[in-house]
Protein backbone atom coordinates (compact mmCIF):
# COMPACT_ATOMS: atom_id res chain seq x y z
CA UNK A 1 0.00 0.00 0.00
CA UNK A 2 1.20 3.50 -0.86
CA UNK A 3 2.35 4.99 2.47
CA UNK A 4 2.46 8.51 1.04
CA UNK A 5 -1.18 8.34 -0.08
CA UNK A 6 -2.21 6.80 3.23
CA UNK A 7 -0.57 9.69 5.10
CA UNK A 8 -2.33 12.15 2.79
CA UNK A 9 -5.69 10.50 3.53
CA UNK A 10 -4.92 10.59 7.24
CA UNK A 11 -4.20 14.33 7.00
CA UNK A 12 -7.38 15.04 4.99
CA UNK A 13 -9.48 13.27 7.65
CA UNK A 14 -7.59 15.07 10.42
CA UNK A 15 -8.33 18.47 8.83
CA UNK A 16 -12.02 17.77 8.23
CA UNK A 17 -15.03 17.72 10.51
CA UNK A 18 -17.74 17.30 7.86
CA UNK A 19 -17.02 14.11 5.94
CA UNK A 20 -19.57 12.21 3.87
CA UNK A 21 -18.89 8.68 2.66
CA UNK A 22 -20.48 7.38 -0.54
CA UNK A 23 -20.04 3.64 -1.02
CA UNK A 24 -21.05 0.68 -3.14
CA UNK A 25 -20.62 -3.07 -3.49
CA UNK A 26 -16.84 -2.96 -3.08
CA UNK A 27 -17.30 -1.98 0.57
CA UNK A 28 -18.93 -5.35 1.28
CA UNK A 29 -16.85 -7.69 -0.92
CA UNK A 30 -14.32 -8.01 1.92
CA UNK A 31 -17.21 -9.33 4.03
CA UNK A 32 -17.77 -12.12 1.50
CA UNK A 33 -20.63 -10.48 -0.42
CA UNK A 34 -19.90 -10.63 -4.16
CA UNK A 35 -20.02 -7.52 -6.30
CA UNK A 36 -22.78 -7.65 -8.94
CA UNK A 37 -20.32 -6.90 -11.72
CA UNK A 38 -17.22 -8.78 -10.56
CA UNK A 39 -15.93 -11.90 -12.30
CA UNK A 40 -17.84 -14.14 -9.88
CA UNK A 41 -20.67 -11.67 -9.32
CA UNK A 42 -24.36 -12.00 -10.11
CA UNK A 43 -24.09 -10.74 -13.67
CA UNK A 44 -21.71 -13.53 -14.58
CA UNK A 45 -23.74 -16.42 -13.22
CA UNK A 46 -25.97 -18.56 -15.37
CA UNK A 47 -29.67 -18.61 -14.61
CA UNK A 48 -32.80 -19.30 -16.58
CA UNK A 49 -33.20 -15.51 -16.78
CA UNK A 50 -30.55 -12.76 -16.55
CA UNK A 51 -30.14 -11.50 -12.94
CA UNK A 52 -31.15 -7.94 -13.90
CA UNK A 53 -34.41 -9.37 -15.28
CA UNK A 54 -35.13 -11.43 -12.16
CA UNK A 55 -34.60 -8.52 -9.78
CA UNK A 56 -36.87 -6.19 -11.74
CA UNK A 57 -40.28 -4.99 -10.57
CA UNK A 58 -42.12 -6.52 -13.53
CA UNK A 59 -40.50 -9.93 -13.03
CA UNK A 60 -41.30 -9.84 -9.30
CA UNK A 61 -44.96 -9.22 -10.15
CA UNK A 62 -45.05 -11.82 -12.90
CA UNK A 63 -43.07 -14.60 -11.26
CA UNK A 64 -42.64 -14.09 -7.49
CA UNK A 65 -41.66 -17.75 -6.94
CA UNK A 66 -38.67 -17.51 -9.27
CA UNK A 67 -37.82 -14.05 -7.90
CA UNK A 68 -37.70 -15.33 -4.33
CA UNK A 69 -35.75 -18.43 -5.26
CA UNK A 70 -33.03 -16.20 -6.72
CA UNK A 71 -33.33 -13.51 -4.03
CA UNK A 72 -32.86 -15.93 -1.14
CA UNK A 73 -30.06 -17.74 -2.92
CA UNK A 74 -28.03 -14.82 -4.26
CA UNK A 75 -29.06 -11.56 -2.57
CA UNK A 76 -29.11 -12.50 1.12
CA UNK A 77 -25.92 -13.05 3.10
CA UNK A 78 -27.28 -13.44 6.61
CA UNK A 79 -23.94 -14.53 8.10
CA UNK A 80 -21.89 -11.64 6.69
CA UNK A 81 -20.05 -9.50 9.24
CA UNK A 82 -18.77 -5.92 9.00
CA UNK A 83 -15.19 -5.54 7.78
CA UNK A 84 -12.48 -2.97 8.53
CA UNK A 85 -14.09 -0.37 6.25
CA UNK A 86 -17.47 -0.54 8.03
CA UNK A 87 -15.79 -0.42 11.44
CA UNK A 88 -13.53 2.55 10.64
CA UNK A 89 -16.46 4.56 9.20
CA UNK A 90 -18.46 3.92 12.38
CA UNK A 91 -15.47 5.13 14.43
CA UNK A 92 -15.19 8.32 12.36
CA UNK A 93 -18.88 9.00 12.99
CA UNK A 94 -18.41 8.53 16.74
CA UNK A 95 -15.53 11.03 16.60
CA UNK A 96 -17.90 13.56 15.03
CA UNK A 97 -15.95 13.73 11.77
CA UNK A 98 -18.22 11.65 9.54
CA UNK A 99 -21.73 13.05 9.19
CA UNK A 100 -23.36 10.42 6.95
CA UNK A 101 -22.80 7.13 5.16
CA UNK A 102 -24.61 7.02 1.84
CA UNK A 103 -24.66 3.47 0.54
CA UNK A 104 -25.93 1.61 -2.50
CA UNK A 105 -25.69 -1.66 -0.54
CA UNK A 106 -28.66 -3.49 0.94
CA UNK A 107 -26.83 -5.68 3.48
CA UNK A 108 -27.11 -3.54 6.64
CA UNK A 109 -23.44 -4.02 7.54
CA UNK A 110 -22.84 -0.33 8.23
CA UNK A 111 -25.47 -0.37 10.98
CA UNK A 112 -24.10 -3.66 12.30
CA UNK A 113 -20.69 -1.98 12.65
CA UNK A 114 -22.24 0.85 14.66
CA UNK A 115 -22.93 3.58 12.09
CA UNK A 116 -26.09 5.48 13.00
CA UNK A 117 -26.69 7.91 10.15
CA UNK A 118 -26.86 5.58 7.15
CA UNK A 119 -28.81 6.51 4.03
CA UNK A 120 -29.62 3.30 2.14
CA UNK A 121 -30.36 4.43 -1.40
CA UNK A 122 -31.37 0.96 -2.56
CA UNK A 123 -33.12 -0.25 0.59
CA UNK A 124 -32.28 -3.13 2.92
CA UNK A 125 -32.81 -6.90 3.09
CA UNK A 126 -33.49 -6.42 6.81
CA UNK A 127 -36.79 -4.63 6.20
CA UNK A 128 -39.72 -6.44 4.62
CA UNK A 129 -43.37 -5.40 4.49
CA UNK A 130 -46.68 -7.01 3.66
CA UNK A 131 -48.00 -5.43 0.48
CA UNK A 132 -51.57 -5.48 1.82
CA UNK A 133 -51.48 -4.53 5.50
CA UNK A 134 -47.87 -3.22 5.64
CA UNK A 135 -46.92 -5.42 8.60
CA UNK A 136 -43.16 -5.51 9.17
CA UNK A 137 -41.07 -8.69 8.89
CA UNK A 138 -37.36 -9.15 9.59
CA UNK A 139 -34.74 -10.97 7.54
CA UNK A 140 -35.13 -14.24 9.47
CA UNK A 141 -38.78 -14.42 8.46
CA UNK A 142 -37.82 -14.23 4.78
CA UNK A 143 -34.94 -16.70 5.10
CA UNK A 144 -37.08 -19.25 6.94
CA UNK A 145 -40.15 -18.96 4.74
CA UNK A 146 -41.01 -21.52 2.07
CA UNK A 147 -41.36 -20.12 -1.43
CA UNK A 148 -43.02 -16.70 -1.48
CA UNK A 149 -43.26 -15.26 2.07
CA UNK A 150 -46.84 -14.57 3.14
CA UNK A 151 -48.10 -12.27 5.87
CA UNK A 152 -49.20 -14.05 9.05
CA UNK A 153 -51.84 -11.39 9.67
CA UNK A 154 -53.61 -11.03 6.32
CA UNK A 155 -52.04 -13.52 3.92
CA UNK A 156 -50.60 -10.83 1.63
CA UNK A 157 -47.25 -11.19 -0.09
CA UNK A 158 -44.28 -9.89 1.90
CA UNK A 159 -41.95 -7.78 -0.27
CA UNK A 160 -38.38 -6.79 0.60
CA UNK A 161 -37.78 -3.08 1.12
CA UNK A 162 -35.23 -3.21 -1.69
CA UNK A 163 -35.31 -1.00 -4.78
CA UNK A 164 -35.75 -3.31 -7.78
CA UNK A 165 -34.98 -2.42 -11.37
CA UNK A 166 -37.81 -0.25 -12.80
CA UNK A 167 -38.56 1.11 -9.31
CA UNK A 168 -37.84 4.70 -8.26
CA UNK A 169 -35.46 5.53 -5.46
CA UNK A 170 -36.99 6.95 -2.29
CA UNK A 171 -37.24 10.73 -2.70
CA UNK A 172 -36.60 11.48 0.98
CA UNK A 173 -33.39 9.42 0.93
CA UNK A 174 -32.25 11.13 -2.25
CA UNK A 175 -32.88 14.63 -0.90
CA UNK A 176 -31.18 13.84 2.43
CA UNK A 177 -28.17 12.40 0.59
CA UNK A 178 -28.02 15.45 -1.67
CA UNK A 179 -28.08 17.80 1.33
CA UNK A 180 -25.26 15.97 3.17
CA UNK A 181 -23.12 15.84 0.02
CA UNK A 182 -23.65 19.51 -0.83
CA UNK A 183 -22.73 20.59 2.73
CA UNK A 184 -19.68 18.31 3.19
CA UNK A 185 -16.14 19.67 3.13
CA UNK A 186 -14.70 16.21 2.39
CA UNK A 187 -16.26 13.39 0.41
CA UNK A 188 -14.85 9.87 0.33
CA UNK A 189 -16.10 7.65 -2.47
CA UNK A 190 -15.28 3.99 -1.91
CA UNK A 191 -15.98 0.60 -3.42
CA UNK A 192 -18.15 1.80 -6.28
CA UNK A 193 -17.58 2.13 -10.01
CA UNK A 194 -20.22 4.91 -10.12
CA UNK A 195 -22.17 3.39 -12.99
CA UNK A 196 -25.54 2.91 -11.26
CA UNK A 197 -27.84 5.90 -11.71
CA UNK A 198 -29.54 7.90 -10.35
CA UNK A 199 -27.50 7.19 -7.18
CA UNK A 200 -24.14 7.89 -8.85
CA UNK A 201 -25.42 11.26 -10.06
CA UNK A 202 -25.53 12.55 -6.47
CA UNK A 203 -21.77 13.07 -6.35
CA UNK A 204 -22.10 15.97 -8.81
CA UNK A 205 -23.48 18.03 -5.93
CA UNK A 206 -20.25 17.91 -3.92
CA UNK A 207 -18.75 21.40 -3.63
CA UNK A 208 -16.33 20.81 -0.77
CA UNK A 209 -12.55 21.01 -0.47
CA UNK A 210 -11.34 17.43 -0.79
CA UNK A 211 -12.64 14.56 -2.93
CA UNK A 212 -11.13 11.16 -2.16
CA UNK A 213 -11.72 8.11 -4.37
CA UNK A 214 -10.75 4.65 -3.08
CA UNK A 215 -11.62 1.94 -5.59
CA UNK A 216 -9.94 -1.04 -7.20
CA UNK A 217 -11.03 -0.07 -10.74
CA UNK A 218 -11.30 3.35 -12.46
CA UNK A 219 -14.37 5.52 -11.83
CA UNK A 220 -15.84 8.53 -13.60
CA UNK A 221 -14.73 10.74 -10.71
CA UNK A 222 -11.03 9.85 -10.86
CA UNK A 223 -10.13 12.99 -12.83
CA UNK A 224 -11.80 15.20 -10.19
CA UNK A 225 -10.25 13.48 -7.18
CA UNK A 226 -7.77 15.26 -4.94
CA UNK A 227 -6.61 11.84 -3.76
CA UNK A 228 -6.98 8.62 -5.74
CA UNK A 229 -6.18 5.25 -4.14
CA UNK A 230 -6.53 2.08 -6.24
CA UNK A 231 -6.80 -0.44 -3.43
CA UNK A 232 -9.31 -2.34 -1.32
CA UNK A 233 -11.36 0.05 0.78
CA UNK A 234 -11.16 -2.20 3.86
CA UNK A 235 -7.37 -2.41 3.66
CA UNK A 236 -7.04 1.35 3.21
CA UNK A 237 -9.41 2.46 5.99
CA UNK A 238 -8.23 -0.36 8.24
CA UNK A 239 -4.66 0.96 7.96
CA UNK A 240 -5.51 4.44 9.26
TrEMBL record:
Enzyme active site: 122 (proton acceptor)
Entry keywords, A to Z: Cytoplasm, Metal-binding, NAD, Transferase, Zinc
UniProt entry tagged with the keyword NAD: yes
Cofactor: Zn(2+)
Note describing how the cofactor binds: Binds 1 zinc ion per subunit.
Binding site for NAD(+): 25, 29, 36-37, 104, 106-107, 122, 192-193, 215, 233
Key word Protein biosynthesis present: no
Superkingdom of origin organism: Bacteria
Binding-site residues, Zn(2+): 130, 133, 151, 154
Top EC class of this enzyme: transferase
Binding site for nicotinamide: 36, 106-107
Designated name of the protein: NAD-dependent protein deacetylase
Organism: Coprococcus eutactus
Amino acid sequence: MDTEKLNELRQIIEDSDNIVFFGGAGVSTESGIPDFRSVDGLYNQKYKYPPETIISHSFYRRNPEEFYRFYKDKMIFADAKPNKAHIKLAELEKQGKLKAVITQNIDGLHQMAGSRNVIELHGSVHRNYCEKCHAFYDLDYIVNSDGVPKCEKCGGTVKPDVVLYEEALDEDNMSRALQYISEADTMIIGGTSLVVYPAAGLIRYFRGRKLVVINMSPTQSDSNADLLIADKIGDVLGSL
